[in-house]
Model the fold of this input.
Amino acid sequence: MHEHLDVAYHQQDTDSYCGAACAQMVLRALGQPLLAQANLFTDNQAHTVEGAAWLTAPDGLCWTLNNRQAAKRFTLDSTDTEEPISRTICWSIHHYQCAPVALVYNGNHWLVVRGYSATAAPSSAFDTAYTIQSFDLNNPFPPVPALPGPPPHSDNDVCGSGGNRGVADINVSYATWQSDYLLPNTFGAVWLGRYVAVCDPDPTDARPPGGPTTPPQGAPLTSPAAAHSGGSPRPLDAAFVRENLVARLSSAGLMSHPLWSKVFEQVRTGEPMLVQRLDREDRYYWIVPTQDDRGTARAAVAVDAYTGDYQQALSIRDQQSSMFGFAPLDRVRDHVLGRRFALPAAAGAAVEAHAQSLSVHAPLVWKPCRESMSPFYPFRMITVGSHRLYVRVFDGAVFAALTNDRGGA
Done:
């Protein structure tokens, strides 16, 4: 079964405003106007006990969601295991018809959870009899491009159309949610090591003390390398990944999903792109673009590079948007050759990209960082002498470092 809330997508106005963008989306779904993200960001920052470590702290976001409307009562949920948060998210969507906001990527980012798929509807926030299959998300990354600059947002703006305007429709398998998204927070002290979400749950006095403690369901979250014997594992062949993609989508339930079945109806698979996780040893995934029979972009799917298991998908509403324009090796080389790039280590230091000293890493690369909070927005990594540059594939932006210095970015 599937439950889905109508929460219109809006991207964050700056790389610091993910929490403000989430508040804007959820409050609009509750009947408020599209409040300015700058004002919501100020609210978030002004109402926290731990501001120095955060751009948007959990208590600040909870305060903003409660004090900018009166229809719902939000509660900050913080637990020492993942499952209670995930089940509270499902219950909030099912029972309260309210989209929670979850803290993901070890505290680096906020996003809205607007739907879920499961074997049954929950009977309470503490029901463990059903199996969660996937979540549907609004990820406010990337920031609005510098030109034309932040909107004001409107109900019919171009947010979510793809490329540098963000992606409105994302589905994440529950196994990927457990292993890659809802992870222990690493920022500050108050919520250090905790799993965090802002939900609309049962009143506090109706909850069992401490919440459920059932271990997370699903396969053990081990390194893919541990599942392979006979030396270092090798990623699956790209042709094999293409041939088996529809079968993987079907086994993951997307071909029968009321929203995603339409996205993948009669699609053809494009050329897969291998991506290396920079923050996980021996972790790779394939991004497989899909098109209709006219060659029009429809979606992109991420699968585990070693097993082919479905991880997550996004749909592309604006077929003219460029999601992976700077992925080709020849284009990214031409993009940086002869240009000088500032280095973060010392003021005034720079490196120039010459053909003789330049090499391009074969796979694309990604990790959660201020420069990309979505695995569908990876980088080309270029070595210039002893330095590294990262070229973001959807817009060609070049970075000398990837950063994650404050929580809730």
User: Anything to note?
Assistant: Confidence is low (pLDDT under 50) at residues 204-230. The chain has three domains: 2-206, 224-315, 329-399.
